[in-house]
Amino acid sequence: MDYISEYIDHVTDILQNAKTSQHEALTRAAELLRDVTLAGGNIFAFGCSHAGLLALELYYRTGGMANINPIRAPGLNLDVDPATLTSQMERLDKYGGYIIDASPLKSGDAIIIHSVSGRNTVTVDAAARAREKGAKVVALTNMATTTRVPSRHPSGLNLYQCADIVIDNGGDFGDSSMLVPGIPEKVGPTSTAVGAAMLYAVVVQAAALIAQTGRIPPVFVSANVEGGDAHNAAMLGAYKDHIFYMGH
To answer: What single string gives the DSSP state of each residue in 16-80?
Structure first.
């Protein structure tokens, strides 16, 4: 069996399904990013451990929108040893709310929160607190998993139940995907590859919608092409009031 082809075909199938089944949710998310940008609001992205990789992927990125800001917090960015400690950190009561309160997020802003299970306390707290502050929450989750696992949050809610827009990443239960003879566990998660593609589809659509209004969307180019540094510096300057990752 050629598992290279099998895995890539499986990811491709998930994305093809997402193109139809998640089109409405993806469109709504793109419209939200457009509306927040045009209204002078701010956009954030958050996730714990590997889910947080997409928050890091979205910011200061070639072809990405300059006004997407990651929310990072100690212990939640695969930044501690032993790595198993991260699983405990994302279950801490009230930590998610403290993280949101320490961020610049305010009413009228938008936040993308990624979690496959959507069950852990920090994730649910972050989503709930963001909504309490008047921000809109876009949840990227795995409905096959989150609807089958109990919440660890005192409210009994999972992430998708605390969001304004829910995007299903369409992955297998528990995220891993490939059954290989001789291995009792499935191999190969899909949430990072699929999630990145889905969120960039949202970013591209949001940029297009902004451009349709006659505004130039805040898109970065590669710093490794001629003129890239100047373009990006201009974009950082134009959106400086909505960018919080430059140390000011």
So the answer is: HHHHHHTHHHHHHHHHHHHHHHHTT--EEEEESGGGGHHHHHHSS-TTSBTTEEE---TTSSS-S
